[in-house]
Amino acid sequence: MMKKTVLVSGGAGYIGSHVSVELLSAGYDVVVADNFSNCDLTCFEGVRKITGRDDLPLVKMDFCDAAAVRKLFSDYPIDAVIHFAAFKAVGESVEQPLKYYKNNLDSFLNVQESAQAHSAKVLFSSSATVYGEPDKMPVTEESPRKPATSPYGNTKQICEDILRDTIFASKGAVQGIALRYFNPIGAHPSALIGELPRGVPNNLVPYITQTAIGKRECLSIFGNDYPTPDGTCLRDYIDIVDLAKAHVFAVRRMLEARMEADYEIFNIGTGRPVSVLELVQAFERVNGLKLNYRFAPRREGDVPAIWADPSRANTVLGWRAERTIEETLAAAWAWEKHLAGI
Ligand code: UFG
After folding, report:
1. Range of the domain at 220
2. Residues ≥6 apart with Cβ < 8 Å to 282
3. How many domains does the chain have?
4. 299 CB under 6 A from ligand 1?
């Protein structure tokens, strides 16, 4: 059978690079496209090294450029596209909403138009942020989507709607899946790819590893007076390699015409809530070090607790999170040390 080709937009970034590795290992041809607005070549080169694929195609382009997207789809025989190319900083999106709406919506509209023209399947990288502050835990795919609390979150909701509406209007001609990620963390066990935030990290794990290596002085734990067992927020931290594998299951499902509906949604999480303090302590324990941290006021916009019910992904997709939080935090630390040349 002919190998199927998967386009990974934003494929040089944190999630895209891990997904590219898993797709290549599963036997797909991959085309990586990225405008390098929020990453450099480190992870792309890491993907080539891990997979031994020196011929892995890389297209430097902006998905907001409709003509460039059309050209990409005519240059390569794309069977499915996984769309990661988007801005993702929640705080920045509040300060610069137009930047976020323009970039995240234009790029997805262009991908959607070309995918439809070429009958390519679409996998959209969505987020647990679409649930807002849920009334009931854990959240299932049927849990209501609450009004977004940031323009970033709103772009995730709008892109899900664009995908859903296009699919319904096409009457069976177009199929797609939205994966709603909980909190992706960690790095590839090779320590050749991982999260590479520019400037001061917004997210917890890069802040922890940068504090441990001495790049940051002290981790602030935002809030210890939440209505949770230890007073710190609860999240569902999902290992980046486990998360990447979920994409292979979803792509296979679309390309092998095994979908039950033309548009499907899956939560991608572990189903286990972990507090910020527990995560910090697990990091210290598994890596045998002490982290400099202090309790600080709550961060605006944080929900006290959110975790997934991943049973639909477990039973319908056949995917399950496998790596332990210890393995994940050891990998995150190995990656930070790799960056520091240790
Ligand atoms: N946290 C700290 N200190 C830090 C950074 C984070 O205590 O320096 C805490 C946060 O308060 C939160 C937890 O660690 O309780 C996780 O924070 P992250 O920033 O790592 O992740 P979020 O849960 O805020 O973010 C996730 C996704 C986003 C998504 C957002 C929706 O990463 O893509 O949920 O709120 F938009």
Report:
1. 204-235+271-339
2. 274, 325, 326, 329
3. 2
4. yes
